[in-house]
Amino acid sequence: MKKHNFYAGPSILPEFTIKNTAQSVIDFNGTGLSVMEISHRSKEFVAVMDEAQALFKELLNIPDGYSVVFLGGGASLQFAMVPFNLLNKKAAYLNTGEWATKAIKEARLFGEVNVVASSEDKNFSYIPKNYSIPKDSDYFHITTNNTIYGTEIRTDMDSPVPLVADMSSDIFSRPVDVSKYAIIYGGAQKNLAPAGVTFAIVKHDVLGKVERAIPTMLKYQTHIDKESMFNTPPCLPVYAALQTLKWLKDNGGIPAMEKRNIEKANLLYNEIDRNKLFKGTVAKEDRSLMNICFVMNEEYKHLEEDFQKFAASKGMIGIKGHRSVGGFRASTYNALPKESVLALIETMQEFEKTKA
User: Fold this and answer.
1) Cα 230 to chain center, whole Å?
2) Rounded distance, CA 338 to CA 315, Å?
3) Hey, is 249 helix, strand or coil?
């Protein structure tokens, strides 16, 4: 039976990425060595890093004055690295979910944090609107996509201060005007690569302005100067990221991904809204294209476990919702084919016929 992978992360990767990376574990680019054992200083691996950075810039149309760096520690380390490098006196944050909450907690270790708005009052089921960003902030931080709750900021806002975005779970899902951001960062394990590598797109002129001393490994400038090679990078995930970047380019780039993602999300949201058994959990105008959350309608709540089992019997993997929300979550990242969404819809409809 075909398996349909809806895990929120680590999550589905293109077959192209998996096959090429698996081959590189056995024989990396004809060297007779595994990518897991070759020196990161070798000309063969330096070429991988260079190409990955170049493709990152090409696919996102990153302007001059920015660097792409590959780091360790996940987005969780970036929660501290951003304020370490940018927060002098105070910063502004938008709280839209669990990861934003954790980023705020870390930033408070370095200075004053102003939470300009929060959707916690309704269990993060919407994106706050009509807030103001204090102009004396060192930066403004947002989390563009909220994997747990299923909301997403899908436009590039104008900010009066440097804008920082955690795009762990929606990078490469839509075109981004990088020029509006000071830093974009994210863990790779949603739309890019297996866990173990983190990307950061850093605007050069926002650095070097804090008064504190920054440890070498936590300083963005260190990794920019050494082109992500200050210490040994996570070679295997970087190689996998390069394969995904190639796959993205070969499949029409980011505009094509956005078109596919909108189509997939619309199909599934339309079924959630139509089906008697289910309902969405977030404001319709803020629905994520990447993480589609839904629950049973109240009168059918008792069928939740039955549907989980039924869906699993049909090859639906990873659709259980996060404990904070309950219900179900279908993560529809770039690599998830439309066929998987259609299979889930068919499963929902079949279950409805037997239970409603």
Assistant:
1) 25
2) 15
3) helix
Q: Active site residue: 138, 166, 170, 286, which one?
A: 166
Looking at CATH, the fold of the domain delimited by 15-250 is given as Aspartate Aminotransferase; domain 2 (3.40.640)
Q: Give the architecture-level CATH label for domain 4-11+252-355.
A: Alpha-Beta Complex (3.90)
- Quick one: average pLDDT of 109-116? 98
- Within a 10 A sphere around the Cβ of 48, how many other Cβ atoms? 23
Q: Around Cβ 130, how many Cβ atoms within 10 Å? A: 5
Q: Is 247 an active-site residue?
A: no
pTM above 0.90, yes or no: yes
Contact status, residue 82 vs residue 210, Cβ threshold 8 Å: no
Check if the beta carbon of residue 141 is closer than 8 Å to that of residue 164: yes
d(CA 245, CA 240): 9
219: left (phi over 0), alpha (psi -120 to 50) or beta: beta
List the chain domain ranges. 4-11+252-355, 15-250
Catalytic residue flag (residue 122): no
How far is 248 from 192, CA to CA, in rounded Å?
Answer: 10
**Catalytic site residue 99?**
yes
pLDDT recorded at residue 355: 82
Query: What number of H helices and E strands is found in the chain?
Result: 9, 14
d(CA 183, CA 277): 42
Same fold flag, 4-11+252-355 and 15-250: no
Report the mean per-residue pLDDT for the chain: 97
* Calpha distance 247→243 (Å, rounded): 6
- pLDDT tens for 33-47 read 999 999 999 999 999
Contact 90, 111 (CB under 8 A): yes
Catalytic residue among 2, 57, 64, 99: 99
**How much is the pLDDT for 147?**
97
Q: What is the pLDDT of residues 265-278, one digit of tens each?
A: 999 999 999 999 99
Q: What's the rounded Cα separation, in Å, for the pair 105 and 116?
A: 14
DSSP state of 22: H
Q: How many CA atoms lie within 13 A of 30 on its CB side?
A: 1
User: Does the pLDDT of residue 279 top 80, yes or no?
Assistant: yes
Active-site hit among 170, 190, 203, 286: 190
